[in-house]
Specification:
Blueprint (H helix, E strand, L loop, with lengths): L3 E6 L1 H17 L4 E5 L14 H7 L4 H7 L2 H21 L3 E8 L1 H11 L8 E5 L7 H4 L5 E4 L9 H19 L10 E6 L4 H13 L3 E6 L3 H11 L5 E4 L4 H7 L12 H5 L3 E4 L5 E4 L14 E5 L2 E5 L2 H15 L6 E6 L16 H14 L5 E6 L6 H16 L1
Parallel strand pairs: 1-2, 1-3, 3-4, 4-5, 6-7, 6-8, 8-9, 9-13, 13-14
Antiparallel strand pairs: 10-12, 11-12
Helix pairs in contact: 1-7, 2-4, 4-5, 8-14, 10-12, 12-13
Length: 403
């Protein structure tokens, strides 16, 4: 193991708890670096990295933060400072893992710093808000969120157990040796439940040909994670079967990956093969959470917590325009596959989202707006989940990667 466990926290309010986990971690034989992100209160012991150092790294002096007396501003400064210092420690090969503990403010600072580290570095956040919506804290990184159950305020029989588990967990992660797998070219693929047969068939074929395939669930966070890995240079080819996250971005669904979806591969110039998987649906929560403006639309109860809405003709026209504009920016090899007999498992004749008119609007918009000099357009008389369609996409990606 190289490096130490970085412990991030506010020593003025969580000093006792931070010292508790520090002693446990060091008792396992792992060294630590404590970073103090508190601003106002006094501390009973000194951190390895002082709050003054953190503040300066974030662009202000500690005295300025105290004088300004603006909690939001102080948090922004300490977040930036903690992230900058953690990134510097990592570059210097001093980080074996990061652990933090706190409430909403401490969680915001700790996880912001963790997001400065690449995927694979152990990251553990013990938080009072870990049982709620953790997406703002986790983002697209492999941050482990651990619910503290009780507030992080003192050491008692319950908190001692929870904090000790966290300390042993991060120490174990840091000591662990990742398995050394064969170094194969990495391909990123996107999948949804209704495009699973396609992606599984394509993945199996690509693996047989000597590639390693990372499959991302197109749930918003999945698309963002893939885009981030592409930007980081991990990915050598993209099989973007499932571009459905753009439906949610357009219509206000709950699984949007943001307006930058489809940007990373185009900018990086890596080979990409793209399709229109699951562009027939927008995702909402339970049926009663569907916005009132969508009353009367074709709604499908996927399960008790997920309701799907069929995209209409106008939305498909807009989706075609958006996707074409994104792919037209590709500086590397790019191919777009159109499944003319349906874009998902439930966009088949007799299925609830069967929509020849809607699909025609999508395909026509793509044909009209696509720059054929930059993007190769391939149309097949298949549903997206037909084996022939999946294999055609996989073979085209290999062809582009070999070039």
């Amino acid at each position: 193991m190289k490096g130490k466990i970085v412990i991030i926290g506010t020593l003025d309010t969580k000093g006792k708890e931070i010292l508790f986990i520090k002693n446990i971690i060091e008792g396992t034989g792992v060294s630590t670096i404590v970073m103090n992100t508190g601003v106002i209160g006094s501390t009973s012991w000194d951190a390895d990295i002082s709050n003054e150092t953190v503040a300066c790294a974030g662009g202000a002096s500690l005295q300025e933060l105290v004088a300004k007396d603006d909690r939001g501003y102080a948090m922004d400064v300490m977040m930036k400072g903690a992230a900058a210092l953690v990134a510097e420690l990592y570059r210097n090969k001093e980080v074996a893992g990061v652990i933090s503990l706190g409430g909403s403010a401490g969680t915001t600072i700790g996880t912001y710093a963790m997001q400065a580290l690449p995927v694979g570095v152990p990251k553990l956040m013990v938080s009072t808000v870990a049982s709620g919506n953790t997406r703002p804290y986790v983002g697209e990184k492999d941050i482990t969120m651990m619910y503290s159950v009780v507030d992080i305020s003192g050491i008692n029989r319950l908190s001692a157990n929870i904090l000790a588990n966290a300390a042993y967990a991060i120490a174990g992660m840091a000591k662990g040796v990742p398995p050394q797998l064969e170094n194969k070219p990495l391909i990123a693929a996107t999948m949804f439940g209704v495009t699973t047969p396609c992606v599984n068939q394509a993945r199996e074929y690509l693996e047989q040909q000597g590639y390693e395939v990372l499959v991302f669930h197109a749930t918003g966070s999945g698309g963002m994670a893939m885009e981030a890995l592409i930007e980081s240079g991990f990915i050598e080819g993209v099989l973007d079967v499932t571009t459905t996250e753009w439906c949610d971005e357009l219509a206000g669904g709950v699984l949007s990956a943001g307006s930058s979806r489809l940007d990373a591969a185009a900018k990086a110039g890596i080979p990409q093969v793209v399709s229109t998987g699951a562009l027939d649906m927008v995702n909402f929560g339970a049926m009663d959470t569907v916005p009132e403006k969508y009353a009367g639309r074709n709604l499908y109860k996927h399960n008790a917590t997920i309701t799907l809405m069929r995209t209409n003709v106008e939305e498909n026209r807009q989706l075609g325009q958006i996707i074409a504009s994104k792919l037209n920016r590709s500086v590397g090899p790019c191919a777009l596959f159109l499944p003319l007999k349906g874009v998902s498992l439930i966009d088949n004749e007799g299925q609830p989202f069967y929509g020849p008119e809607e699909d025609a609007a999508l395909f026509d918009a793509l044909r009209t707006n696509l720059d054929r000099e930059r993007v190769e357009l391939i149309e097949l008389e298949h549903n997206v989940n037909d084996e022939a369609f999946a294999l055609a996409m996989a073979k085209k990606l290999i062809e582009l990667m070999k070039k």
